[in-house]
Amino acid sequence: MARLTADCPPVPCVDADQARLLLRALADPIRLQVIEALGGGERCVCDLTTSLGLAQSKLSFHLKVLKEAGLLQDRQQGRWIYYRLRPEPIEALRAWLAALAAQCRLPAPPCP
């Protein structure tokens, strides 16, 4: 998902379309709660359901959106599925935002 672009530092970063996809996935309050819950490491779906107070179906929908955006990785062990954050897209989005922040400080060129 992440790739190097000319405007980014040597850390892989995303282009504007990829940034929109990631930001859209992160914009939902429930999905942000899921991201924060996974910030402490890998968690089982059963644990997330309990700690977030969500129905399995609702949690599954939000996990699917986050996974499709490339933010999550999962693995199955027995009958349980475990999720964890993928650091690469988070770092790539951070690099894109840092490049944007650096560019917004540039003064305007003089008018003709």
Short descriptors:
about 110 residues; alpha+beta; Arc Repressor Mutant, subunit A; 3-stranded antiparallel beta sheet; elongated; disordered N terminus
What does this structure look like?
- There is one protein chain.
- By secondary structure, the chain is an alpha+beta fold.
- It has one domain (16-100): Orthogonal Bundle (Arc Repressor Mutant, subunit A), CATH 1.10.10.
- 54% of the residues lie in helices and 12% in strands.
- The longest helix has 17 residues, at 87-103.
Number of domains: 1
The fraction of residues assigned to DSSP E strands is 5-15%
Biggest sheet, spatial arrangement of strands = 1-3-2
CATH 4th-level superfamily: Winged helix-like DNA-binding domain superfamily/Winged helix DNA-binding domain
Portion of residues in helices? Answer: 40-55%
CATH topology: Arc Repressor Mutant, subunit A
Q: Uncertain runs with pLDDT below 50, 5 residues or more? A: 1-6
Main β-sheet description? 3 strands, antiparallel
**What is the end-to-end distance?**
41 Å
Entry summary:
This protein has 112 residues and is α+β, with helices and mostly antiparallel strands.
Itemize the secondary structure elements and their pairings.
Layout: H1 16-27, H2 29-38, E1 43-44, H3 45-52, H4 56-68, E2 72-77, E3 80-85, H5 87-103
Antiparallel strand pairs: 1-3, 2-3
